[in-house]
Design a protein that fits this description.
Elements (H helix, E strand, L loop, with lengths): L9 E3 L2 E3 L4 E10 L5 E10 L6 E6 L6 H12 L9 E5 L4 H6 L22 H12 L6 E8 L3 E9 L4 H10 L3 E4 L7 H7 L3 E9 L5 H17 L17 E10 L4 E5 L6 E2 L4 E6 L6 E5 L4 E7 L3 E2 L4 E9 L3
Parallel strand pairs: 5-6, 5-7, 7-10, 8-9, 9-11
Antiparallel strand pairs: 1-2, 3-4, 4-6, 8-10, 8-16, 11-18, 12-14, 12-17, 13-16, 14-15, 16-18
Helix pairs in contact: 1-6
């Protein structure tokens, strides 16, 4: 059963937002070396009708453009204007990294490893502290959008703690192609939400410094399904439907390159492969060596390394090992 919040004044980042109002609040934590302010727009849309508060974020890693595109579309299409409750959108959490197309904060830290942060710590830690203490307390549900790191392309999926059945059920409603059961990493935003008993779904899809239309569509449509479930999606939107249920991956493993060289991928992301199926070839630049990469077992390709060149030992394919029966 969905619990509704009281429809009174929303206090966030030192500002009061009345029911039925739309505001953009600039979250300011630091300046550039030039003394230029770096402000993070926090876009708040409130209905006059009471309901949950949903926080939609992306860009914890500044180079993960696909997540930013998902939240951008949600705002541009006015999906973030709820029929009840409140929707808060933050398309780019790590503006510093976004400006330089870098995963990290200027202090070299991964923002998604310093939560819940500290008041007097590093820049990333201070930001995490303010975010957790000034924004998260008013929230009921969180949707956080990510991509694969580097050249590794993630099939669209939701990551949830296998011990939280209510979140597994919510992930099924989101209905991405895959659900990966994975424990929360210490210091992550997801782990902090769990400790504070905030419902969070983490979406992964695509790769860094790249925008993929199909991945963005999965993210937007999944968000719409969750908002519909919460009775927050306006009737003017048609509910996106998928033809199949999400495949729930209990465990997976990485296949690694046995040789260094040029990598030539032969199969699409998300494909079901059988043991012995040709997945790629690795060649040298001189036409002397050609190694065929074959699947070591049956499963779904949930991550593919799209780098043109790999070293021996590099992770190249992540394949599902065990699926959960419905």
């Amino acid at each position: 059963m969905i619990e509704e919040t009281k429809n009174d004044i929303l206090n966030i980042l030192g500002e009061q937002v009345l029911p039925g109002k739309s505001v953009t609040i600039n979250f300011n934590i630091a300046k550039l070396y030039t003394s230029t302010k770096v402000e993070i727009p926090v876009i708040v849309e409130r209905s006059k009708t009471p309901g949950p508060v949903v926080l939609i974020t992306a860009g914890i890693h500044g180079d993960e453009i696909n997540g930013v595109e998902v939240v951008r579309q949600i705002i541009a299409k006015k999906i973030n204007r709820p029929s009840k409750g409140t929707i808060i959108c933050i398309p780019v959490l790590n503006v510093f990294g976004f400006l330089s197309m870098n995963r990290f904060f200027p202090d070299g830290r991964d923002l998604n490893r310093v939560f819940p942060g500290t008041k007097n710590g590093s820049l990333a830690s201070r930001f995490a502290y303010q975010f957790i203490n000034e924004i998260l307390p008013v929230v009921d549900y969180c949707l956080d959008f990510h991509t694969g790191g580097g050249s590794r392309f993630n099939a669209p999926h939701i990551r949830v703690d296998p011990n939280n059945q209510s979140l597994v059920d919510l992930a099924k409603i989101f209905n991405a192609p895959f659900i990966l059961l994975s424990k929360n990493l210490e210091g992550s935003y997801r782990a902090t939400c769990a400790k504070k008993e905030k419902n969070i779904l983490l979406f992964e899809g695509g790769k860094s410094q790249s925008s993929d239309k199909e991945v963005a569509r999965e993210g937007v449509h999944g968000t719409m399904r969750v908002l519909y479930h919460l009775k927050m999606l306006h009737d003017s939107f048609e509910l996106p439907r998928r033809s199949s249920s999400s495949l729930i991956v209990k465990s997976s493993f990485w296949m690694r390159a046995k040789y260094s060289g040029l990598l030539h991928i032969k199969v699409p992301i998300g494909k079901h492969v059988v043991k012995g199926e040709i997945l790629a070839t690795i060649t040298d630049p001189y036409g002397k060596m050609r190694h065929v990469v074959k699947a070591s077992n049956e499963g779904y390709l949930i991550n593919v390394n799209e780098s043109a060149i790999v070293y021996k030992g590099d992770a190249i394919f992540r394949i599902s090992k065990e699926l959960m029966d419905e």
